[in-house]
Amino acid sequence: MKWERMGRAIVPAITTATMLLSGCTTYVSTQVTAFSNWSGSDATRTYAFARTKEQQNSIEQATYEQLVANELDAYAFRQVPSAGAHYLVGLAYDIRSDTVTVSQPVFYGNPWPSPFWRPIGPWGPYGPFPPDYVTQSYPVFTHTLGIRITDRSTGKEVYNVTARNTDEESSLVRAMPYLVRSALADFPLANGTVRTVRVRYDKRGAGLTNEVPVRQPATAPTGASGASAAPQ
Q1: Is 36 part of any domain?
Q2: pTM for the full model?
Q3: Which phi and psi angles does 121 have, rounded to 5°?
């Protein structure tokens, strides 16, 4: 029926518009698990990053190390050459994909044609109408960061924290600032701490972004050809 078809088109549009106009503050929630044997008696906290064989000469690794270094600065840590460091800081990170299927009821209102049609809930003025169910599948991604701090002279582990969150973000580099900030919040946590940390969402990636302005080409001199090279 014509009115029913209109209802099916209008209700999702109204729902989408409401979501876009709500202006709600969004947070990234991260689960943090920490194991600690931290003495807290350091006169100076010097450290160096320890890399696995696969992490050597990695630009990605260096990028994440800088994020961790920025957070450690807030807790009086100072990065020094490895030979003079009290602690070694190792990083492990991963991203995995999955699919979530969600089935939700949708109420379209009065199923009979009428100039008074309007979206209503399940208990509208014309009695209850059974809902239709819409099933959709969404890709989700789990991002994980592990930070392990060991005593350089003894090799003893003194702090091990893991941060993990799951959302629709398919890029680990975009998720990493939230993982780092959550993992090192309130350092050092007590041994066996499990908690959820919420960080306000920043479209710039909480300090890390790959969105840069495009440099405009220089004005071509008079008489120069306006042709551009085609993609190869």
Answers
A1: yes
A2: 0.68
A3: -80, -175
